[in-house]
Amino acid sequence: MAATDKVLGAAKQFISFVNKCPSPFHVVDETKKLLVAAGYKELRETEPWAIQPLDKYFLTRNQSTIIAFAVGGNFKPGNGFSIVGAHTDSPCLKVKPKSKTNKSGYAMVGVECYGGGIWHTWFDRDLTVGGRVLVKNNGSIEHRLVHIQKPILRVPHIAIHLMRDHNEKFGPNKESQVCPVLATTVQLELQGSKQEEDKKPEGQEKQCDKHQPALVKLICDELKISPDQMMDFELCVADTQPAAIGGALDEFIFAPRLDNLLNAYTAVEALIETDGSLKSDPNIRLICLFDNEEVGSQSAQGAASTLQELVLRRLSSGGSQTAFEEAIPKSYMISADQAHAVHPNYSDKHETNHQAALHKGIVLKFNSNQRYATTAITTTILREIALKSGCPLQDFVVRNDSPCGSTIGPIMSAKLGIPTIDIGAPQLSMHSIREMCCTSSVSQAICLYKGFFEKYPEVFSSLKF
After folding, report:
1. What is the largest CA-CA distance in the chain?
2. Which Pfam families does this one have (predicted)?
């Protein structure tokens, strides 16, 4: 198979993953399927663990964060951890706890703006919902995923005839003007279809009182449940247009949620694909895919929680009393989040000597104000790994007169003291409903993460300071 075919093949597999993942809950579910197929077994935080060399496990929290690990054949407590961290969430609209809204003859769905999205890009798109539903079934409460596979929502633009300065300035009010239309009240009345009775204990609101009955019916029909079985839900609004290979030369990926599903997916693939070299590894290899990065990581399932520390402590048990503390300086974490490619129409927004380009490799992110965790030491280590693995790299620094985003890197490195580097694949349209990157990034990221898992212990042992 030609190199180009390999690049396209990897990109198409990633696109399939994205299309199945309209919410962080779907990301975790699809990741679990990949891991189980590769021989990984599920652990629970509530149970004791007995970890042995060559074991492969994963655990979840809130069904929106997942940590998977493979224990090296030569691992013993006190040895290091080789970690790739990413996140499962993306900016989106989320259905409110009470979303039923009727305005001017339209049945609408109230939404919250989650994260720092480019909200005008959500206008005039064919939208649907995906997420999780808590279902009561024969005395048990079950966690089920739902993804309505048709366009049911739309946030319509105002006509230019009614807003003449539309092209000069458009800053919609996020509360009153970013509200999707589900149906017309006229048509709902004509339909006259009665909802199945929603029986709730006294003092509890019925779902059809909190949400549009038509939306409740769609969800219940999809899950084959009655409204009285629906305890609660968390739904993300998502574009129905599938991700696609684009460009005249089939070199681009046009997709939602590239930030940060590209790194979540490639981290999983790299962990699975390096099984063959696990026997000689003295470290434990981990991927940590956290929820809520887009809103600051301050949650029980976010990178700012104690989850990763608790997992690493449990994996260090069985050695000396200071096995965990001994392991930390031997460890290394890649914080993998998307990076800004130079924009052809706004090139003046990019620092002259640090203009990341598509196809030219994964981007190392630097910021002296610690918005990124990269240091000279962590950079040198990854450059050596990339050199040994044949993976191209490029550098990025934001302009001094421009704000700089941040990642889980500074959070995790400060919390745990693990040497960390911030990197990502270059892309355009970050935080738009539909983003753009190059097909090369998928295979380049997998190449780098595989090289890291396999070669980090060797490179670490070469450090003489």
Report:
1. 78
2. Peptidase_M18
